[in-house]
Design brief:
479 residues, 36% helix, 7-stranded mixed sheet, 14% strand
């Protein structure tokens, strides 16, 4: 009797081994890798190709870092020029021609008043270190200690930046209401809600029995990104500028994610005409490489040498890539392009809200867009807002991935679908993004995800379904 021989088996694809080793060796703190289990090997513009051969439209863009998309020719040319020149790649904070060119280009894009009377400090290569530097700067300049921040904020992952972010606990940061039209804390929304938020802030700062001492500075985001893509009303921003100026409180504006044309102006503060005392910049200013700075009014420059330092403040490749990116965005008026295309995309997203009662709100500015998903079967609050639906949002994100679309989640309960395409996205690509998103939303709703756990439940946003990568997109859109 012949022995039965086992059938030969093929080894698992290489990308599966890479993902398995990542899960075994990297920390439990990893984030994007949990909901986006892909292994990128090539990328250009909007498109990423994975090790499994699939192509994806990337609407995460390095969390807003890639203003020109992946591997833009002007960025690659700038990096190669530095490498081929023999210039040193590590110079601490010494002056170099590359740094001089970057600073010159950056100052050419700033609000004129800040550029004329500004100073720049190069920080450690992440935005959170620039936030820490801003806090240190205003504390030194004013002799005060406290920081005023806003509900829903996100400023980074180091201790001081986290203390000023929305999820902080037991900290000495004073928290004021940020205007949030859909979930207005005053139940009014609109201009009335923004006015009440401003009056609350002003009253708390002026009331000597409020328990809030005059802070060293106030920090805000012109559009809260991680907070759920919530644009601040221009009038409210002007009020914050008036309130802080009248009380000698330096205004710090965090444009780490909103800068370099993202919102339809080169800097988001330009929509309101506000000129801050300190501007915090990172992400796109490095042209996809690590770079972070603060730019501030010269009268705040009370630091002693070494008051804020760091070994990696002189990233020559990032400065070259950043200068090329800033110039390209400026010369090609990509901020205006972001405003025009973003308005058209926002209109189409509004159509999704009309078709699906699980879309509670659609909002954004420029190419920084969000859809807040809610439980349509739950009772609305007195202002009409329904509970967030994080499980549905996670299901939509995974349905997007199976269709070759990468998006991120944000908001109070990770129930906001976020779109951050590069500023170079074409009309055809934008249509493909919205088509895939619409298909994914319809599929998730049909699957009954809207009846799953809502905001008060233990979410499943970190889960990775076995089907990810199994379905190839029906068509590819060139980058």
């Amino acid at each position: 009797m012949a022995l039965t021989q086992p059938l030969p088996t093929s080894p698992p694809p290489a990308h599966e081994g890479i993902l398995r080793r990542q899960s075994l060796r990297e920390s439990a703190a990893r984030t994007y890798a949990r909901s986006l289990p892909i292994v990128p090997v090539r990328a250009r513009g909007l498109t990423i190709e994975g090790a499994d051969g699939r192509r994806y439209l990337d609407c995460l863009s390095g969390a807003g870092t890639l203003a020109l998309g992946h591997n833009h020719p002007v960025v690659l040319e700038a990096v190669r020029a530095v490498l081929d020149s023999g210039a040193p790649l590590h110079v601490l904070d010494l002056a170099t021609p590359v740094k001089d060119a970057f600073v010159t280009e950056l100052f050419a894009t700033l609000p004129a008043e800040l550029a004329r009377h500004g100073r720049i400090q190069f920080c450690g290569p992440a935005g959170t270190d620039a936030v820490e530097a801003a806090f240190k700067l205003v504390r030194t300049a004013t002799g005060r200690d406290g920081i005023a921040a806003f509900t829903g904020a996100y400023h980074g992952m180091t201790a001081g930046a986290l203390a000023a972010s929305g999820g902080a606990r037991d900290v000495s940061v004073s928290r004021f209401p940020y205007p949030y039209d859909y979930r207005c804390p005053f139940g009014t929304g609109g201009e009335r809600g923004a006015e009440l938020a401003a009056r609350w802030t002003q009253n708390a700062l002026d009331d000597d029995k409020s328990g809030i001492a005059r802070p060293a500075g106030m920090i805000l985001e012109p559009v809260q990104g991680e907070g759920g893509v919530i644009p601040a009303p221009d009038g409210w921003l002007r009020r914050m500028r008036e309130i802080t100026a009248a009380r000698d409180i330096p205004l710090i504006v965090d444009e780490v994610q909103t800068g370099v044309g993202r919102t339809g102006a080169f800097w988001a503060v330009e929509h309101s005409g506000v000129v801050p005392d300190v501007l915090v910049l990172s992400k796109a200013i490095g042209g996809s490489l690590p770079l972070a700075v603060i730019v501030y009014r010269e009268e705040l420059d009370a630091w002693c040498p070494g008051a804020h330092a760091g070994t990696f403040r002189g990233n020559q490749l990032a400065m070259a890539a950043g200068a090329a990116t800033l110039a390209y965005v400026r010369e090609n008026d990509l901020a205006r392009r972001a405003a025009d295309l973003g308005a058209r995309m926002l209109s189409r997203l509004g159509g999704l809200a009309a078709e699906h009662d699980c879309v509670g709100d659609v909002r954004g500015r420029g190419l920084m867009l969000g859809l807040e998903l809610v439980d349509p079967d739950a009772a609305p609050d007195p202002a009409g807002a329904r509970p967030a639906a994080p499980a549905l949002a996670a299901a939509v994100q995974q349905e997007c991935l199976t269709r070759g679309l990468i998006i991120e989640l944000g908001g109070r309960h990770d129930a906001v679908l976020r779109l951050l395409p590069p500023l170079t996205v074409t009309d055809e690509q934008a249509d493909a993004v919205l088509d895939r998103l619409a298909d994914a939303l319809t599929a998730a709703v049909r699957a009954g995800a809207s009846g799953a756990k809502s905001a008060g439940s233990a979410g499943s946003a970190g889960a990775v379904p076995a089907t990810v990568g199994a379905q190839a997109p029906s068509s590819e859109v060139p980058s």
